[in-house]
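Reopening this one. Same input as before:
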Amino acid sequence: MSTSNSSNEISGEFTIRIIARPGKSLNDIRKVVDEEITKFATGGPTSEEMQKEQAGWAMRFVSNLERIGGFGGIADQLNTYNTFLGDPDYFQKDFDRYQNVTAASVQSEFKKWVADAHRLEIYITPETSGRPDAVEFDRMNVPSTEAAVSFSSPITEKKTLANGLEIVVSQRPELPIVNARLMIKTCNLLETAAAAGESSLTAALMDEGTKKRNALKIRDDIDLLGSSLSVSGSRGGASVTISSLKSKLDATMEIMSDVILNPAFPKDEFDRLQKQTLDGILQRKSNPSTIADQIFAQKLYGEDHPFSRPSGGTESSVKNLGIPDLKKNYETFWRPNNAAIVFVGDISLDEATHLAEKYFGKWQRGSIPEMEVPDVAPPKGPVVYLVDKQGAPQSQIRIGSTAPNRYTKDYYPLVVSNTLLGGSFASRLNLNLREDKGYTYGAFSMVNFGRELGSWIASAGVQSKFTKESLVEFKKEITGLGGFREVTKGELEGVQKNLTRGYVQNFESNGMVLGQIASLMTYDLPLDEMSKYVKEVEQQTTHSVMAMAKKYFDFDQTITVVVGDLSNIEDPIRQLGWGKVIVVDADGKEVK
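Same output, byte for byte:
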């Protein structure tokens, strides 16, 4: 559930949003909400709650000042203050008025506007609806673009502790904020069918309790500092990310280290997460888009390959996993010699090294197992897999094959080639299937440059009645980029501008810089890759781009997955003559 307050010029809206778990009564949930509203209106917030919220608000307010434009950036905030208050220089006043709010005033306003006010209740339950008519827009007037701008990549410094933990710092002293991420470079890449989701669940349970803090205490301590902490992970690796005002960084790092070094793996939290994960898997089984993605991976890699299974696990594997499995995963892979920590913001290398040594210096090295991921050959195709989704107004389409990993010399030309095919709004696929034909809201492609293996995939959700026609257009664009339809100089220049200018925007805030550095560290790539990107993209030619498409986007070596109403789409798809057509269920089992 979540609450939000939107204060507009004429009026405002206070909204409570709740998503009920399957089988739970909306009336019972409403009773609980009413009880909490009454409790807050009569008792108000505690001093600790006020401290947490005001600290968190201060952190968010200052963080927004990192960005020049965009929603919430400096330009947006200047305009907001000027429009509504007639004073663009209202930053300090705004900061002060929020910090001066008292518990009594919060209680009084809540009682006035929420507890004692009339309200509108809306209950949304699952239903089937059709696709609205497409809206035509006049896109004839293309905005002009300025000349290319120079780009200087962030300056980084590195150091390694005695236990193998790598430290990287990019100093940005403009604001008193520091973002940091500790990355586990690889987890169990070879998860078996019975253990699928093991690495993901391990990471999910890390911040649900330590030897001295339970889950609520971790959240409370972080909130009191106005900081943030999150954990994520999969078989490919894991990370713990924090953001903090510099004055609160030491205390935030202490909590971060507690989460990383002292996880308790509490049974009650494990049971809850296991149940929550199983609910999510059940929900995804009814989602045509998710089904298409999972069948594509299963058929591309083969059912026995670890990458054929969802990183978050399957229903049977998640049920099979226990706390001992997660502890073993943690003890094996969460080691300093399999980790790196990146700091971005108002911090020097000496300061970062001191903090890393203080909180992670005694972290013990471990023996990280060598894992050789089985190679995968391109499909001997094309092969088409169909999944029946009765009554579906749309068909989910996936077409793709194998691709090189991140270390290939073809990385940059293939990035440009994919952007031309379907990697941007102005790509050939999207301009054809969305803008010209109106079959879909969006048709795109992407190349997954993995650490071990790679793949490429083109995808769209199309109107069911245009499924066959959409497949024809997909094939036309995929084969066309490989030689049947020349790439023009203007087309290439447009893609290069899109990529280079978009790349420069990836360094606007501390968090964005952190993401770029962390990605390179995860792949053990040199950090000067950041300075190479613009030049490498600009050096590509029409010849190099088409050569990549011909080399990797070979339609005769593709797998196609279509999830839709087979009563309407199966016969027309078979008429295409795209090789073998196989009907499978949502788990990928062939339907006889």
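So the earlier flakiness isn't reproducible anymore. For the record, The chain has three domains: 2-115, 157-360, 383-509+526-584.
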